[in-house]
């Protein structure tokens, strides 16, 4: 039940710190270290390449998950949109492992791929929020999100839960092969949960950003580099599905290859700057669009902030920034939809789980 909340979406955004803490607990062994079932670890160890298959928000989580797995477990990863994979199957490696990411575990496009790869004799792991869901039952292994029911059509807490579980899977898999990462994940996820709380306490700030930048515009752009780009894709999906503003996410460096032609006087550009090594280049991209009249809203991270940034998120480990930089984007989308009188929890033309192909 949504209790005193006006919408499920707002409640689910607010639940994120608790969900992250739940995940830590659920994936902790008695000695406090993180654990994953042995059979999943041996499937990860055997794999020479991982194929992540997902749709929508879960696909965006997969893009970040690829970074986690490649960096912490040193296994090459490809991320595919499930509806494309079936007829556009890449040349598979010799020992592939498939990871299906699906909040509902019922997405038909993903299930179709699961059936196909099982027929080919490959192993599959499903990361889902729903125990006993179709994708969980039909895969060889399951990892649960422990996020509690997600009711709003716009996925929020499932995304951050997917990222947390993918980070744990990546690190524990790496460890099981003797790869140590310089990241105390239990501690850093705890810091993430506190940072999420601080962001959820800053709602007025995001309401005013939404009013200032998005209450009348027809379109909006999200830019970032590296993992900030992937979070921008998720921010733009959130905004378009509930506020009906035409929104697109771009890699900062791609702007000059075409998209910059769309920038007009006042076009809102939401730029993420949470990564030290691309901080100056993303700010260079912002200058390029400002020179064409864009209205920039820079969201940066403590330690990287510069004069004129609109919001500064608390500092977290550089790999884990997507778990918190997405929160402002979720809240900005929420308030933009409210300001435009949209049905936040049940946007037009959409269903919570897409069980048709
Ligand atoms: O249940 P799933 O994670 O498989 O759903 C995938 C997409 O349909 C879902 O993420 C969709 O994009 C959301 N409405 C996004 O907020």
Radius of gyration: 20 Å
Mean pLDDT, to the nearest integer, reads 96
Shape: globular
The run of helices and strands is HHHEHEHEHEHEHHHEHEEHEEH
- β content, as a range? 15-25%
Main-sheet strand order equals 2-1-3-4-5
Main sheet summary: 5 strands, parallel
Q: Would you identify the regions where 5 or more consecutive residues have pLDDT less than 50? A: none
Count of DSSP H/I helices: 13
Which structural category fits the helices and strands?
A: alpha/beta
Spatial gap, N to C terminus: 30 Å
Number of strands: 10
Ions, cofactors and other ligands present here are: 5-amino-5-deoxy-1-O-phosphono-D-mannitol
Percent helix range: 40-55%
Q: What can you tell me about this protein's structure?
A:
By secondary structure, this protein is an alpha/beta fold. The protein has 13 helices and 10 strands. The protein has helices spanning 8-14, 16-26, 38-46, 56-72, 82-85, 108-119, 134-138, 157-176, 185-200, 203-214, 227-243, 279-290, 321-339; strands at residues 49-54, 77-81, 96-102, 123-128, 141-144, 219-224, 246-251, 268-273, 295-301, 311-313. A 5-stranded parallel β-sheet has the order 2-1-3-4-5, with helices on both faces. Strands 7-6-8-9-10 form a 5-stranded parallel β-sheet, with helices on both faces. Helix 6 links the parallel strand 3 and strand 4 (123-128). Helix 3 crosses helix 8 and helix 4 packs antiparallel against helix 11. It is globular, with a radius of gyration of 20 Å. It binds 5-amino-5-deoxy-1-O-phosphono-D-mannitol. 5-amino-5-deoxy-1-O-phosphono-D-mannitol (M6R) binds next to helix 4 and helix 11.
